[in-house]
């Protein structure tokens, strides 16, 4: 039973445009949500997070939105840059366990 | 500051062999964890530890053992390797539970023949 779903395995966006990555979850007990970015042959790196008491958090070009009623998390990157090309994982905190989604591969082309 | 160091980076084993994947961090982090990454499956939590002497199971613990005798080290043991354990393994650490962003190592690519 997969608690976290990233339904788009890949996304291709032109440089300068907005990238929107989505994540759906089923467990309403999650109270903290994170996004990680992963380049090939490297470990994931933390990108941005949001607490369940908020619905939006911004950090430069990255904004995370949380819709608790829809159990939906999204990451907006604007403007997208070629260096943003990577695999993005959403992750949810369930007590002491961090549960990851399956990942979305973002490609930003010139 | 080395962060999270995993060794080895690559390993090939035969079915039934045992091996230990090493993980060390120099950030005095209390929380450490092990994940495996498989195509289409994302990262799945194997085992985690909230401090020295304390370990607990994650989503996919079967076939793996861990121990946490020091704050710095969190080795992952495969007692009898199986082809289903072919994967990329990541170790991570953070100051406390998953609330703090976790710092990941660069992974160990393990193939079981």
Summarize this, please?
Chain A has strands at 4-5, 10-14, 19-25, 32-38, 45-51, 56-59, 62-67, 72-77, 86-94, 97-100, 104-109.
Question: What would you say this structure looks like, in words?
Answer:
The complex is a heterodimer of chains A (110) and B (113). Chain A contains no helices and 11 strands. Chain A is an all-beta fold and 110 residues long. In chain A, a hairpin with a 2-residue loop joins strand 6 and strand 7. The mean pLDDT of chain A is 93. Chain B is mostly beta strands. In chain B, strands 2, 4, 5, 6, 9, 10 and 11 form a 7-stranded mixed beta sheet that branches. In chain B, strands 1-3-8-7 form a 4-stranded antiparallel beta sheet, with no helix packed on it. Chain B starts with a strand and ends with a strand. Chain A binds chain B through residues 4, 6, 9, 32, 34, 41-46, 49, 89, 91, 93, 95-103, and chain B through 4, 31, 33, 35, 40-45, 48, 50, 56, 58-59, 90, 92, 97-99, 101-107.
Layout of helices and strands:
The complex is a heterodimer of chains A (110) and B (113).
Chain A: E1 4-5, E2 10-14, E3 19-25, E4 32-38, E5 45-51, E6 56-59, E7 62-67, E8 72-77, E9 86-94, E10 97-100, E11 104-109
Parallel strand pairs in A: 2-11
Antiparallel strand pairs in A: 1-3, 3-8, 4-5, 4-9, 6-7, 7-8, 9-10, 9-11
Chain B: E1 4-7, E2 10-13, E3 19-25, E4 31-38, E5 42-51, E6 54-57, E7 64-66, E8 76-78, E9 87-94, E10 103-104, E11 108-112
Parallel strand pairs in B: 2-11
Antiparallel strand pairs in B: 1-3, 3-8, 4-5, 4-9, 5-6, 7-8, 9-10, 9-11
């Amino acid at each position: 039973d997969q608690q976290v779903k990233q339904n788009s395995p890949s996304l291709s966006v032109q440089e300068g445009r907005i990238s929107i990555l989505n994540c759906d979850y089923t467990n309403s007990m999650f109270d903290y949500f994170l996004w990680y970015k992963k380049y090939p042959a490297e470990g994931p790196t933390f990108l941005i997070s949001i607490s369940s008491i908020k619905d939006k958090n911004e950090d430069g070009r990255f904004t995370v939105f949380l819709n608790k009623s829809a159990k939906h998390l999204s990451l907006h990157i604007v403007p997208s840059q070629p260096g943003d090309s990577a695999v993005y994982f959403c992750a949810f905190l369930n007590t002491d366990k961090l549960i990851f989604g399956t990942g979305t591969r973002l490609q930003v082309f010139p | 500051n080395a962060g999270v160091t995993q060794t080895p980076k690559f390993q090939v084993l035969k079915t039934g062999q045992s091996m230990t994947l090493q993980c060390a961090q120099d950030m005095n982090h209390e929380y450490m964890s092990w994940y495996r990454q498989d195509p289409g499956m994302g990262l799945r939590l194997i085992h985690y530890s909230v401090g020295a002497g304390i370990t607990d199971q994650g989503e996919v613990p079967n076939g793996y053992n861990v121990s946490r005798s020091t704050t710095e080290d969190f080795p992952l043991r495969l007692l009898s390797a199986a082809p289903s354990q072919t994967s990329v393994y990541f170790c991570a650490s953070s100051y406390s539970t998953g609330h703090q962003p976790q710092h990941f190592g660069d992974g160990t690519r393990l193939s079981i023949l």
